[in-house]
Amino acid sequence: MSQVTNIPYEALSVGQQAAFEKTVEERDVQLFAAVSGDNNPVHLDAAFAAETLFKERIAHGMFTGALISAAIACRLPGPGTIYLGQQLKFTRPVKLGDTLTVKLEVLEKLPKNRVRIATRVFNQDGKQVVDGEAEVLAPSTEQTVTMPPMPQVTVN
Amino acid sequence: MSQVTNIPYEALSVGQQAAFEKTVEERDVQLFAAVSGDNNPVHLDAAFAAETLFKERIAHGMFTGALISAAIACRLPGPGTIYLGQQLKFTRPVKLGDTLTVKLEVLEKLPKNRVRIATRVFNQDGKQVVDGEAEVLAPSTEQTVTMPPMPQVTVN
Questions:
Q1: Which of A132, A102, A134 has its CA nearest to residue A12?
Q2: CB within 8 Å of chain A, chain B residues 23-82
Q3: Chain B residue with minimum CA distance to A155
């Protein structure tokens, strides 16, 4: 089990950044369909998707939203953060095999521990696939948290 | 395999609604942790969560976002919809066992097939847990789509 230390409100500064990469795999699309209930063929059926304007299967837009929320909850500010809001603009499709880079940047510190964070996601060609921003309640104290093991999930 | 018929732009009217219910289960929280990568103990560790201000485990905020996105993609307007954007305000925590009602309502028809849709989610006490709205590109033609089988997923 890994340990993660958050960044409390006082230690956050405007311009502070965090980033991580994630390659979108078949498993991710299957899992997101199962957890969201969205089994549209544009995500799951290659022959159907080939006839759409996307020409091939695409990931669910909100899968990228889920990656953003995890980056906020695990990295910046990290554990203890309370999610108040999220704006998302889906600017380009995400295809299977794309490598996404989620970039967070502190935009503004507001009163009462509230913080605005830019949430931008780029693909392997440097093209932006999601733009947006989060509003969070940052943790008031530094805390090191033991992260439970990631649930083991099998797609049959 | 089920079939779903979308509601094309021309057939959408302001005030048109769709709703569905979903009870948040242990499995949902485990799956969302796995697909997002957010394994924070407030979601997965009951003893840890008992010491937080929530007093018990809560679902990931963006899980409710995933339900909203599925409602748009599968119901209103349904298959063929292109997701342009989503605003979310997380107004109350969602706990395991809560029964959520996702309510969609067409707010405005914009030029070039764009539509604004209110995306509101309530718990079993009628209290709102998420407020927000989506912007989508509605399908230009009516289409009946064969939905692939939902991926079968096992949490170990």
A1: A134
A2: 28, 30-42, 44-45, 48, 60-63, 65-70, 73-74, 79
A3: B153
User: ipTM score of the complex?
Assistant: 0.97
Task: Count how many residues are written for chain A.
Answer: 156
Residue B114 phi, psi (nearest 5): -80, 145
Q: What angle do CA A40, A42, A46 make, to 5 degrees?
A: 120
Please report the sign of the dihedral spanned by the C-alpha atoms of residue B98, residue B100, residue A70, residue B90. Answer: negative
Q: What pTM does this model have?
A: 0.97
A156–B153 CB contact, under 8 Å: yes
Strand order in the sheet with A82-90: A17-23, A99-109, A114-122, A128-137, A82-90, B82-90, B128-137, B114-122, B99-109, B17-23
| CA–CA distance, B35 with A145 (Å, rounded to integer) | 21
- HSE-CB at A152 with a 13 A cutoff on CA atoms is 1
- At A99-138, the pLDDT tens digits run 999 999 999 999 999 999 999 999 999 999 999 999 999 9
Q: How far apart are CA A103 and CA A110, in angstroms?
A: 20
Q: What is the pLDDT of residues B20-44, one digit of tens each?
A: 999 999 999 999 999 999 999 999 9
Judged by CB atoms within 8 Å, which residues 80-99 of B form the interface with A?
Answer: 83-90
Of the candidates A34, A42, A44, the beta carbon closest to that of B31 is on A34
